[in-house]
Write a structure and sequence with these properties.
This protein has about 280 residues and is α/β, with parallel strands linked by helices. The chain has a single domain, classed as 3-Layer(aba) Sandwich (Rossmann fold). Helix content is about 40%, strand content about 15%. Strands 3-2-1-4-5-6-7 form a 7-stranded parallel beta sheet, sandwiched between helices. α2 packs across α7 (about 245-255) and α4 (about 95-110) packs parallel to α5 (about 135-160). The longest helix is centred in the middle third of the chain and has 28 residues, at about 135-160. About 40% of the residues are buried. Mean pLDDT is about 85; it is low at about 20-30.
Length: about 280
């Protein structure tokens, strides 16, 4: 018995020396800069702010991106800025419900399929009294009604094409607090749309989630315009003493669209720096 153990030991030792003590494994490794290679992504509100940051983030990781916005001139300028063969443009006004479905069909033909939808288009009001019927219609037609029908048609598209894709909605911290104004109402609606659509689509292995930023220096926050190009903007209203920046929101979107988030369903991730209000 002892002799057998000694012989076995020397066999193992000989193999260990021959192969340098290395155990050979086959490992599939994905370069971090290519984890979205082969994916087709549609981003609304993609010519500025969070939408633009999201488009850049996906492009940087190998995705093919369709940037959507209301104005062709803004799309042309953004495509020129991004300077990539992987980026395309499409005019899309999500408040024009009658054209959303045909626009998604156009996007499908252009991209030859879409795996991920990121809905960043949104508006606020700061030049007029927000509590008027005009402002109510303007804000809710985009932030709530438009988002609802985008989610409906995006979900229907993924189901019909048997794509186990992702939908991420950019909502707002305003949807988590109480307020008597159209903007707050629209963001409560946006959160409800996200959770409801997530429940509808989960059986098809389609993930729907949301990111709810606090105050982010973008085009719709007039008082923060001077901070748009800063990396770390100070604010006493957050526990972190800084605003959430568009790139940080984009990085969270990227996580929710990854395979690591396949079992996250109908969640709204609030990014407000520990806001006090």
């Amino acid at each position: 018995m002892m002799l057998k153990k000694i012989i076995r030991f020397f066999k193992i030792f000989r193999q260990y020396r021959r192969e340098g003590g290395i155990v050979h494994l086959t490992v599939n490794k994905v370069n971090p800069s290519e984890q979205y290679k082969g994916y087709k992504v549609l981003v609304t509100g993609a010519t500025s702010g969070i939408g633009l940051a999201t488009a850049k983030a996906f492009l940087s990781e190998g995705a093919e991106v369709l940037i959507c916005a209301r104005k062709q001139a803004a799309i042309d300028d953004t495509i020129k800025e991004l300077n990539s063969k992987q980026v395309h443009g499409l005019t899309l006004d999500i408040s024009d419900i009658s054209h959303i479905q045909s626009k998604l069909q156009e996007a499908d033909k252009l991209m030859k399929g879409i795996d991920i939808f990121v809905n960043c288009a949104g508006v606020s009001a700061y030049d007029e009294d927000i509590n008027t019927e005009k402002m109510y219609d303007y804000i809710c037609d985009i932030n709530q009604k438009g988002l609802y029908f985008m989610n409906k048609f995006e979900g229907d598209y993924l189901i019909e094409n048997k794509i186990q894709g992702k939908i991420v909605n950019i909502t707002s911290k305003a949807g988590e607090r109480i307020g008597f104004d159209p903007y707050t109402l629209s963001k409560w609606g946006a959160n409800s749309i996200t959770r409801g659509n997530a429940r509808r689509l989960a059986p098809y292995h389609i993930n729907v989630n949301g990111v709810a930023p606090g105050r982010v220096p973008t085009n719709i926050t007039k008082e923060l315009q001077s901070h748009k190009d800063s990396d770390n903007v100070f604010t006493p209203n957050h526990s972190t003493k800084k605003f959430t920046m568009p790139d940080e929101v984009a990085a969270t979107v990227m996580f929710l669209c990854s395979g690591m988030a396949n079992n996250i369903v109908g969640q709204i991730i609030v990014m407000d720096g520990g806001s006090y209000n």
